[in-house]
């Protein structure tokens, strides 16, 4: 999302409404979501920002690997499991069994009607 720093005289724009204003009806080809890690929060983030994606756009989520003690990923892996079963998807995880982190990417065009 467009968020110029205060050092260049720009305004901080965050959230899907501000994003829609900046995009002026255009869509984005790639969207990276790293926000709320609660299940309800990650669902809300996805549902809020996904409409800004192009029809064949890619959406990435951070922290898709399950926690094994750190509690860093929260419920993102649960939501990722749901998304990865509904869309064409790729998981980028360094090692099987790693504790949290990882990036998941879905392609929007692959959602069933």
Task: Quickly describe the structure.
The chain has helices spanning 16-23, 39-49, 76-86, and strands spanning 28-33, 53-62, 88-92, 103-107. The chain is α+β, with helices and mostly antiparallel strands and 113 residues long. The chain has a domain at 32-110.
Mind explaining what this structure looks like?
The structure is a single chain. The chain has 113 residues and is of the alpha+beta class. The chain has a domain at 32-110. 27% of the residues lie in helices and 23% in strands. Strands 1-2-4-3 form a 4-stranded mixed sheet, with helices on one face. The chain is globular, with a radius of gyration of 15 Å. The chain starts with 15 loop residues before the first helix and ends in a 6-residue tail after the last strand. The model is unreliable at 1-12 (pLDDT under 50).
């Amino acid at each position: 999302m467009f968020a110029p720093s205060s050092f260049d005289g720009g305004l901080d724009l965050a959230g899907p409404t501000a994003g829609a204003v900046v995009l002026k009806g255009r869509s984005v080809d790639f969207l990276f979501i790293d926000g709320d890690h609660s299940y309800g929060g990650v669902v809300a983030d996805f549902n809020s920002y996904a409409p800004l994606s192009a029809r064949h756009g890619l959406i990435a989520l951070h922290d898709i690997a399950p926690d094994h003690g750190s509690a860093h990923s929260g419920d993102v892996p649960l939501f990722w499991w749901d998304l990865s079963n509904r869309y064409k998807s790729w998981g980028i995880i360094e090692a099987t069994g790693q504790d949290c982190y990882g990036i998941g990417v879905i392609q929007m065009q692959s959602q069933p009607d």
